[in-house]
Write a structure and sequence with these properties.
alpha+beta; Rossmann fold; 2 domains; 5-stranded antiparallel β-sheet; 11 helices; 30% helix; globular
């Protein structure tokens, strides 16, 4: 998400979640061994020797199955067998109105997809949609399998695509606006003195820990979905589980760093192991960190606070694919506790709501 992100009524104006129907005629005409949208495990090693040769094979296979493909400089027109929805997507990609498509479900570890090898405008959208269908067929229990995030050049293009795709129930199970989720951090432009940990006193942490038989959460696996974490901070030594920060697709910046320190702050409030009575978390749980923001700042504003101090307000926007993948992973891992310190005014998408319900159901079982 970048500085030109547009939020309307609590939704990202230029994005849509589209859940594809795995029984669509185009999908069923493409077997698991074909290259168009197939997983890397189904693609011969020789086809990877050069992208040009790889692209030629895709086009040849697409011709033989009566479908359509657009790879690099080679364009194959839509042939019989492609549904209205796929014709719309291919047409909008050719005109650059459709910028990118990303399956919500990440590939299996060590796997890759054709969509990641192609640049926008060269068949990337077509490949991503078929990749999502392949995942949907392979992972029937995944809430987000079969769903693709579509990113358009404008809100008008997104609205037009919404109208066109909704008219093809054969290929599209559902199409939804994407709820915007964000975080605002107010940072003083001058370093302030540290404050006493009044919150620990307020909740009576010392008294609770002295109670007989009290367990301090040592056996709890807890997930934090935020801006990342400073994983080398000494207060987290021995407390961190796996750290997920992978970008959703090539071209989206995301590395190991905490982009705003907010995630580190939240994780520390929960489970930092600092000096007693100073910097200390409220439990001893093991923390699993999911970075759900890219490394791009949404907006920056400066203002004066009530203390007449100059502040800088950074607005960060959650990346929908990173967020969806984190929610699905949390549900799959049966974490009993999830922490989300993000904002948003729109109701959750189907995938967001279903993943949350699945997490709660599994945590209670």
């Amino acid at each position: 998400m970048s500085e030109d992100v547009v939020v309307e009524d609590g939704y990202y104006a230029n994005q849509r979640f589209v859940t594809l129907n795995s029984s669509a005629s185009l999908a069923t005409s493409l077997g698991a061994g074909t290259l168009a949208g197939a997983r890397a495990s189904g693609i011969g090693a020789a086809d990877y020797e050069s992208l040009a040769g790889f692209a030629g094979t895709v086009v040849e296979r697409a011709h033989s199955y009566g479908s359509a493909a657009a790879i690099e400089d080679v364009m194959v027109e839509t042939l019989p067998g492609a549904t209205h929805a796929f014709e719309t997507l291919l047409s909008m990609e050719r005109s650059t109105a459709l910028v990118a498509a990303t399956p919500l479900r990440r590939p299996v570890l060590g796997d890759s997809s054709l969509a990641d090898l192609l640049s926008p405008g060269s068949g990337q959208v077509f490949a991503a949609c078929l990749e999502a269908i392949r995942i949907q067929e392979d992972e029937q229990t995944s809430v987000i399998a079969g769903t693709v995030l579509l990113e358009f050049d404008s809100a008008d293009s997104a609205e037009e695509a919404h109208r066109q795709l909704a008219a093809d129930p054969e290929a599209v199970t559902s199409i939804e606006r994407v709820p915007a989720r964000w975080l605002e951090t107010d940072t003083p432009e001058e370093v302030l003195s540290p404050v006493n940990p009044w919150h620990l006193t307020r909740i009576g942490l010392d008294r609770v820990r002295e109670a007989e038989g009290f367990k301090d959460g040592q056996d709890v696996e807890l997930a934090v979905l935020d801006t990342g974490i400073d994983e080398n901070h000494p207060f987290f030594a021995g407390r961190l589980g796996p750290y997920s920060y992978e970008p959703p697709r090539p071209g989206i910046p995301s590395d190991r760093r905490d982009i705003s320190s907010h995630g580190t702050h939240v994780a520390g409030t929960i489970g930092a192991d600092g000096p007693t009575g100073n910097v200390e978390g409220v439990c001893r749980a093991r923390l699993h960190i999911y970075k759900i923001f890219s490394d791009q700042v949404g907006r920056v504003r400066r203002f004066y606070g009530p203390d007449n101090q100059p502040y800088m307000r950074n607005e960060y926007f959650v990346h929908p694919v990173m967020y969806s993948r984190a929610l699905q992973d949390c549900a799959d891992s049966n974490f009993p506790v999830l922490n989300l310190s993000i904002g948003g005014t729109a109701e959750g998408s189907t995938d967001e709501s279903d993943c949350s319900r699945l997490s709660l159901t599994r945590a209670r079982s």
